[in-house]
Amino acid sequence: MQYLAPGKYIVKPDGGGIDQAFMVSDATRILGAAAICSVDGSQVTIGDDGYGTSKCTAEQLEKAAKTGSVTVRVVLSRKSAAAETVEEKYHP
Prior knowledge:
With 92 residues, this protein is mostly beta strands.
């Protein structure tokens, strides 16, 4: 994930293809594993699929995105360019 501007990001599809820009809104669910956020700031929080489960803020997402080292799975709204969910993929 790359940071573009406040609330705006770009992701690259796993299988290649065209980069996808997206926005976050107040309704976007942001879930971290460790890099974006975690329950207490030190524990890894992931589900069985390897993606984060800790609820994070848009500010935490922005800070993590600026590092350029966070991998996420994004589900976009069909009605807008806003993300419904952003989930961090855990990689040690």
